[in-house]
Amino acid sequence: MNFKTEKNGRAVVVFVKEERLDANNSEELKAELVRIFEGGSKDLIVDLKEVRFIDSSGLGVLVSGFKNASTRQGTIKLSGLQTQVKSMFELTRLHRVFDIFTTVDDALESY
Amino acid sequence: MKTRMALDITIPNQTRYLGLIGKIGENMAREFGDSACDRETLANQLNIVLTESIVNAIKHANATDPAKEVHVRITVSDREIAIMVYDSGCGFDLNSLASPCFDADALEEKGRGIFIIRSLMDHVEYRKANGGNVLEMRKKLVRR
Known about the structure:
The complex is a heterodimer. Chain A is α/β, with parallel strands linked by helices.
């Protein structure tokens, strides 16, 4: 899976550089989120601007990140959701769980 | 009910072809959906349903056994799109699967796949077939 991780002020930003976040590649994102948390960071932003499609495995990895962040009194925020991705969050009610922003900058300003 | 198109696909028990099959579903929806708006919604829904059902067959029914295969049959008629996903595993009880918990304090990482399929399709059934099992999913095509 292609992604880019950057430390930006208070938060670590993970840019997912894939059209699909699904059962075929989501475990790699999960491993990256675990690596970031275990490295001592507890505030994450996952940017999904380039993701056109997400399945339940992709959602599950983000839920895993949410739980991991909560355990550490941290946060995981999402940005750049395309329409189809947003509709999956709404279908599974996860849009009520995550803080979702239009852009990474909006997410950063919320801290 | 006249069949307009039927497509049979057999894939190895691996997740690497999910994107390819999802795109096939999207293109069929664009060809057979009604209005432009419906076609794009249907395209996304078929992509999701194909992905979820194939992953379900690979990981749960076929227990990630690399020697097994998943067979997918997509049929389009005047009235509906039917997707059959055949596995060769032990199967599972569709009715025993609870809906996922929506409470932020009790979220589970897994367990949304069948809920999503049931939400997007009009008819979902899992039964014995061809020495294994089939997940049968049907969606009506709206005609105006």
